[in-house]
Design a protein that fits this description.
heterodimer, A: ABC transporter involved in vitamin B12 uptake, BtuC, two-stranded antiparallel ribbon, 13 helices, about 5% strand, B: mainly alpha, ABC transporter involved in vitamin B12 uptake, BtuC, two-stranded antiparallel sheet, 2 strands
Chain lengths: ~375, ~300
């Protein structure tokens, strides 16, 4: 009697541009699954075609949603760049959303109260951006210190801090910071014009994109050209070896988290100064969470992160468009993001391992035995 | 006296979904699998429970179906992390995103609807005991189920052969394997049971705590449950204490909001459970036993394979 046995073994040879293939394959798989889901849900295959047509054209054409896509790419890329650095050392900062909120809040505080009368636009904007970055960094410093010195799990602490940040922001915009002329909507007054990020020509795209591109190179430099980046990689690969070779995990953890938080805070700052020009309810559509997938799909490479951020910016814009055109719920995007992450994990495994179906004798003597394949 | 009774009883009620989820995660983590998808699983349980109750008009059947949905949903996590040996943290996050998204999508048509809910049953005799009776024995049947479940889980984990195997797999999978325990099957089992119980916690929210579906109604309870597993040092009885403590904070916060006597913004009050989680974690970490993670399965989060020794 023979029975089939699924066996997974490590693939020794590597494909060319394997990382790229993994990302593409997982995107395709998740779109197919999502398509099936939509098909079942609406019972109409034409809807699936229509959905994907909308999702792939609207966000990427200049006359349609391209500007929006780029505007969404900026915070996603910035946050993802910060996350690359912490993920490299296998620290799970899930708190980018909260750090983004803190950055936006600090910037708002500066723009509406502290520096509202500043006449020099350049120094005001610089100051506000630094303000946002510092606030994000400080918010990330809390879980970093808790992990470094008290060994507290950063996933839970960063998530709790996210919830706290959301309610803090809500408190401000429903309470003390509410615009008296805002018809009771949860939003602050509009920032002084001096604090608005200048646009590039009349493209509708603010200079945040230049900051983003500069930071791509900065992140690349930190990760691949500095001793810090080298240490982060060793810690991620083998913390024990890192410890024995005298690398301080605590120090690196704190530096990496500050960097990550600062970038998320900066993203929040750029978002309010460049797009909304005020702080309002739901100013972030979960950028901090989406950026986690961006970082993973980019295989922790800064340059890929920008491209993936662009695609995901498109996904968010397409999702909003589908809400209007197809009346899809916004939660569809969250489901699709989960699917993409799962497909990514699965295709990674499929590329890394080979699945062998072997016919094994059910009676085995002494451990693994795979003679007759 | 009256109010104290009410607050404590409310603490039990709002602690029950946390208890279900925490017990589920304890079982899963004891086998060495970290499932960070609790938040998504709770939402899946809540929406499937609600839809079932709405269409079938039977809460008992709905509760069971919610658990089945949770079991099936956690199967994804099991397959990806156990069979494909993928990163458990990322898979858990993906599960939360997927659960949040899917529940939002299929729940859209049910917003504003009302389904039948579990009714309160005063236990004879027991509910007549002063104070204790009102607090512990004057609830819906699911609360009583959760009491029993704590005892059953504890007995199962520490007194049965299957439970010991499960813990062995979580501590030393290689040793368990050579002793003839099927590591993969055990981990699948633990993840699925954990998923079902977590979904039960979610279903409690839509079938007993309220009788409606609200998008994202778990509101971070899944993440608090993950923290509770750590507080409880992976022990069911301690999970009970932790869950009711946090249930108490949630109930208190709701009460303060409803009364409106204290002049604090509701947004600040809503921070309370998350802030408390953080503070309790910090306070606990000064305790030697907690810092050394007594009770934490040694192989937690590490994929197991026969060929590669990690």
């Amino acid at each position: 009697m023979l029975h089939l046995k699924l066996k997974i073994e490590k693939r020794l040879e590597r494909f060319k541009c394997e990382n790229f293939l993994i990302s593409v394959v997982s995107l395709i798989i998740s779109l197919v699954i999502m398509g099936i889901f939509i098909w079942i849900n609406t019972g109409n295959f034409a809807d699936v075609v229509e959905t994907y047509k909308e999702l792939f054209t609207w966000p990427f054409f200049p006359e349609l949603g391209l500007v929006d896509t780029i505007l969404k790419m900026i915070p996603l890329a910035l946050i993802a760049l910060g996350l690359l650095v912490v993920f490299k050392m296998k620290v799970w900062n899930i708190g980018a959303e909260g750090q983004l909120y803190l950055g936006a809040m600090a910037t708002t505080w500066g723009a509406l109260f502290l520096f509202k009368n500043m006449s020099n636009s350049i120094s005001m904007i610089t100051l506000l951006l630094i303000f946002g970055a510092i606030a994000g960094a400080l918010w990330a410093l809390i879980p970093a210190i808790l992990k470094a010195f008290l060994k507290l799990d950063e996933i839970v602490t960063t998530l709790m801090l996210n919830y706290i940040a959301v309610y803090w922001l809500n408190y401000l915009i429903y309470g003390p910071w509410k615009d008296p002329k805002g018809f009771n909507f949860p939003l602050t007054a509009v920032f002084p014009k001096n604090s608005w990020l200048p646009e590039l020509g009349d493209t509708g795209i603010h200079i945040g994109i230049i900051i983003t591109f500069i930071l791509v190179f900065v992140t690349y430099f930190i990760m691949y050209k500095t001793h810090l980046g080298f240490e982060l990689k060793i810690i991620g690969d083998n913390p024990k070896a890192a410890r024995y070779s005298g690398i301080s995990i605590e120090k690196n953890l704190i530096i990496a988290m500050i960097f990550s938080g600062a970038l998320a805070g900066l993203a929040g700052s750029i978002q309010v100064l460049g797009v909304q020009h005020r702080l309002q309810h739901g100013f972030s559509t979960g950028y901090g969470y989406t950026a986690i997938i961006v970082a993973w799909l980019a295989r922790l490479n800064p340059f890929s992160a920008v491209i993936v951020a662009f695609l995901f910016g498109g996904l968010l814009v397409g999702g909003e468009q589908l809400q209007i055109v197809m009346r899809f719920p916004i939660s569809m995007i969250s489901a699709l993001q989960g699917l993409i992450l799962f497909s990514l994990l699965a295709s990674e495994a499929i590329f890394k391992y080979r699945i062998k179906i072997t016919k094994n004798d059910p009676i085995k003597i002494g451990g693994e035995f795979n003679g007759n394949t | 006296m009256e109010t104290l009774e009410n607050i404590l009883a409310a603490a039990i009620r709002s602690g029950t979904p946390l208890l279900f989820a925490t017990l589920g995660e304890i079982i899963t983590e004891r086998s060495g699998i970290l499932n960070l998808g609790l938040e998504g699983l709770m939402l899946i349980g809540a929406i499937f429970g609600f839809i079932a109750a709405y269409t079938l008009q039977n809460v008992y059947l709905a509760f069971i179906l919610a658990m089945v949905a949770g079991a099936l949903f956690s199967l994804i996590h099991a397959f990806v992390t156990i069979s494909l040996r993928a990163n458990q943290t990322v898979s858990g996050l993906a599960l939360t995103m997927l659960g949040t998204g899917v529940s939002g999508m299929i729940g859209r048509n049910y917003i504003g609807q009302v389904a039948p809910k579990f009714s309160k049953i005063d236990l004879p005799l027991l509910s007549k005991i002063p104070l204790i009776g009102k607090v512990f024995f004057s609830h819906d049947v699911l609360v009583y189920v959760s009491y029993i479940l704590v005892a059953v889980t504890s007995y199962f984990l520490f007194k049965t052969r299957l439970g010991m195997n499960l813990r062995a797999v979580g501590e030393e999978p290689a040793a368990a394997d050579s002793a003839g325990i099927n590591v993969f099957l055990t981990r699948y089992f633990a993840t699925i049971i954990g998923g079902a119980l977590t979904a039960a916690g979610g279903a409690y929210l839509s079938l007993a705590y309220t009788s409606m579906w609200i998008e994202n109604m778990s509101a971070g309870r899944g993440w608090i449950a993950i923290a509770l597993v750590i507080f409880s040092m992976w022990e069911p009885y301690k999970a009970m204490i932790g869950s009711y403590l946090f249930g108490g904070i949630m109930a208190l916060q709701l009460r303060l909001q409803a009364e409106g006597k204290i002049n604090i913004s509701s947004n600040l009050l809503m921070m309370l459970p998350y802030l408390t989680t953080l503070i309790v974690m910090i306070v606990f970490s000064f305790n030697e036993k907690f810092r050394k993670r007594v009770g934490a399965p040694s192989a937690l989060g590490i994929p197991y394979s026969r060929e590669e020794k990690t």
